[in-house]
Write a structure and sequence with these properties.
Blueprint lengths: L4 H9 E3 L7 E5 L2 E4 L1 H14 L8 E5 L9 H17 L2 E3 L6 H8 L6 E4 L13 E4 L2 H10 L1 E5 L2 E8 L8 H12 L7 E6 L8 H9 L8 E3 L4 H9 L19 E6 L6 E3 L7 E3 L10 E4 L7 H11 L9 E4 L4 H9 L2 H8 L2 E2 L19 E4 L15 E4 L2 H10 L27 E2 L29 E8 L6 H4 L13 H4 L11 H7 L3 E4 L12 H8 L2 E6 L4 H10 L2 E5 L13 E4 L2 H7 L3 E5 L4 E6 L4 H9 L2 H7 L2
Parallel strand pairs: 3-4, 3-6, 4-5, 6-7, 9-10, 9-12, 10-11, 15-16, 15-18, 16-17, 18-19, 21-22, 22-23, 23-24
Antiparallel strand pairs: 1-2, 2-8, 5-20, 13-14, 21-25, 24-27, 25-26, 26-27
Helix pairs in contact: 2-3, 2-5, 6-7, 9-11, 9-12, 16-17, 19-20
Bound molecules: alpha-methylisocitric acid and iron/sulfur cluster.
């Protein structure tokens, strides 16, 4: 029996364990990436590890999230990261260079290698045949320090694509369609491997749009084979030497298989407030729009923006609409400046932003009260755009551009013919925004501004835990709910005490007060708790506020790992209905937790005033248990590895 592509790559990179789904494996990390809003923590953690050199083949520190410098805070963080990058031998990407995932795809991603990134959309590079996994910052710091990464061996879900997309249907519509079918937790525990005749028609950046939003499916990562399309992309990027052909064996098997005929997909939209809330645009009533935002790591490639330019050329943005465009990289912006596209966009009335995440993470361009905003981004969680009562709809670049002209959500085919967008023989590959580390790094020091505060470290786990239920949070709680991000809060990503004032801010304004009053406690959640971003702050801030455990029906992968890394217990209800037996403010006790974890037995959760108990379980490895007992990864490191 042959092997699937995922299995082939993992087998080659395996350092410990066996590749059986659910079992722990250690794999070699070839590359890492960080971005600035998670990166400050990563480099603070790297500092505490006291290493001299990184063990990866290549690591890059991007600045792309917090680029608004309304005060000194973001600029201080940039300087800290720049100095840490120089000290440890890491490539530094200056603000203005572009979005980490687009840049990594263009300049560094390599088929067949493993990339770990402190951002949940790291799987973007899966479009180029790379295993690229989003994880918490501590795992990335460890990847750099030791050259390995521990994870649960995933199952592999194959999506076999056949047929061909209609002219006005694009990769974004494909992934919105898949999200509608599988939901935001449908990919949990899986690597999604794409195959089939249909992939030949998809460019590398189309493929990356699809793998990028695999993060929204909860998947560990998503991957396409490395084929002639991949070679062509790498050639045009001046990197043909990085090409290796990679594909699954014809007779391989998968844990699950789905078939999808691309020709059946129609232009899609994800309605507020979840990326899996998909619908065919043609099924919707007329929807007037106020804002259109084009860009993000999902849809800011050269081809995406040239399609948008083609639509907007000689047209005018509707008088009621604000159209804002943020290109994926400085080289894309440069190509568009040279070929006249930028002039066309400005003439049409678009607002051009620098190459960065920008509005996708609420860094500016918050829409007006109650606005309808169409975005080519990947997440439309409530409040993420910076305006709590705005309604964000996710669409393809084609739909966004045509709608910006008409002023309402419009099926793009109404625009006429879409010509083939020629890809340049050679992409721009200028490296002036990249700062390579100096050859001699002796004596280099990191520069810490006053905004950078130490991060909290837990204490060893106690055997009997008592506390109050501080919050019952419901299903699909995102890390944007746990630790909101916007232009006001992002400058404090290296300042946990300041961030703690806004913990669970989309759900309640007084979580911090509750936690202080009860001297910490527990949080309860429903299904898929902690979906969305990789931000460790969603664990570190609760840790700072004394949260000892999160008790849910199920967890999202990265957040669960971040909890364990911080020494916070991620516990599951054995019977999901037991969730309904508890209220906020209830006093609970978890006796004998250490022995239960060690023996692998069920865990008792005792309701004090109700005088009853329910059963909890912990699904983790022996290493997870050792980390929890030690009070998190950093404490554990002092005694092991
Ligand atoms: C996101 O898209 O939610 C972010 C902002 O890129 C996060 C990282 C962060 O919170 O800093 C992510 O995707 O991991
Ligand atoms: Fe940046 Fe948005 Fe992509 Fe996150 S999803 S990396 S904020 S562009």
């Amino acid at each position: 029996m042959g092997k699937n592509l995922t299995c082939k790559i993992f087998e080659k990179k395996l350092l410990s364990g066996t590749l059986e789904p659910g079992r722990e494996i250690g794999v070699r990390v070839n590359q890492t990436l960080t971005q600035d809003s998670t990166g400050t923590m990563v480099y603070l953690q790297l500092e505490t590890m006291g290493i001299k050199d990184i063990k990866t083949d290549l690591s890059v520190a991007y600045i792309d999230h917090n680029t608004l410098q309304a005060g000194f805070e973001n600029a201080d963080d940039h300087e800290f990261i720049r100095s840490a990058a120089a000290k440890y031998g890491i490539i530094f990407s200056k603000p203005g260079n572009g979005i980490c995932h687009q840049l990594h795809l263009e300049r560094f991603a390599k088929p067949g290698e493993i990339l770990i990134g402190s951002d949940s959309h790291t799987p973007t590079c899966g479009g180029l045949g790379m295993i690229s996994i989003g994880s918490g910052g501590l795992d990335v710091a460890m990847g750099m320090a030791k050259g390995y990464y521990y994870m649960k061996a995933p199952r592999v879900l194959n999506i076999e694509l056949s047929g061909r997309l209609d002219q006005w249907v694009s990769a974004k519509d494909v992934i919105l369609y898949i999200l509608k079918q599988l939901t935001v937790k449908g990919g949990t525990g899986y690597v999604i491997e794409y195959s089939g005749e249909g992939i030949k028609e998809l460019s590398v950046t189309d493929r990356s749009t699809i793998t990028n939003m695999g993060a929204e499916l909860g998947a560990t990562t998503s991957i396409f084979p490395s084929d002639e399309v991949t070679r062509d992309f790498l050639c045009r990027q001046g990197r043909e030497r990085d090409f290796v052909p990679l594909h699954a064996d014809i007779d391989c098997s998968y844990d699950k298989k789905i078939q999808l005929d691309l020709s059946t997909i129609k232009p899609m939209v994800a309605l507020p407030h979840s990326p899996d809330n998909g619908e065919k645009i043609s099924n919707l009533k007329r929807l007037k729009i106020d804002q259109v935002a084009i860009g993000s790591c999902t849809n800011s490639s050269y081809t995406d923006l040239m399609k948008v330019t083609h639509i907007l050329r000689d047209q005018r943005v509707h008088s009621d609409v604000s159209l804002v465009i943020s290109p994926g990289s400085s080289n894309i912006l440069k190509m568009m400046a040279s070929n006249g596209a930028l002039a066309d966009l400005i003439t049409a009335g678009a607002r051009i932003l620098e190459a960065a995440c920008g509005p996708c993470i609420g860094m500016g361009q918050a829409p007006k009260n109650g606005a309808v905003s169409l975005r080519t981004f990947n997440r439309n969680f409530k409040g993420r755009c910076g305006t709590q009562n705005a309604e964000v709809y996710l669409v393809s670049p084609e739909t966004a551009a045509v709608s910006a002209i008409t002023g309402y959500l419009t099926v793009p085919s109404s625009f006429g013919l879409m010509p083939e967008i020629p890809i340049p023989e050679k992409f721009e590959t200028s490296e002036n925004y990249f700062i390579y580390p100096p050859k001699n790094r002796d004596g280099l020091q990191v520069v810490m501004g006053s905004n950078i505060k130490p991060f909290p470290v837990n204490i060893p786990l106690k055997n009997n835990l008592n506390g109050t239920i501080l919050l019952k949070a419901g299903n699909n709680i995102t890390t944007d709910d746990i630790m909101p991000s916007n232009a006001k809060l992002l400058p404090f990503r290296s300042n946990i005490p300041e961030l703690s004032k806004h913990c669970f801010g989309t759900i309640t304004q007084d979580f911090r007060e509750r936690a202080l009053k009860h001297n910490g406690g527990f949080v309860m959640g429903g299904e898929n708790y902690g979906q969305g971003s990789s931000r460790e702050h969603a664990a570190l801030v609760p840790l700072y506020l004394g949260v000892k455990g999160i008790i849910t029906k199920s967890f999202a992968r990265i957040h669960r790992t971040n909890l364990i890394n911080s020494g916070i217990l991620p516990l599951l209800f054995k019977n999901k209905e037991d969730y309904d037996l508890f209220q906020e403010e209830d006093e609970i006790e978890i006796p004998d937790i250490i022995s239960s974890l060690e023996k692998g037995t069920e865990i008792c959760l005792f309701h004090k005033s109700g005088n009853f108990s329910v059963t909890l379980v912990f699904e983790g490895t022996d290493r997870d248990i050792r980390m929890l007992k030690a009070g998190g990864y950093l404490n554990y490191l002092k005694t092991a590895e």
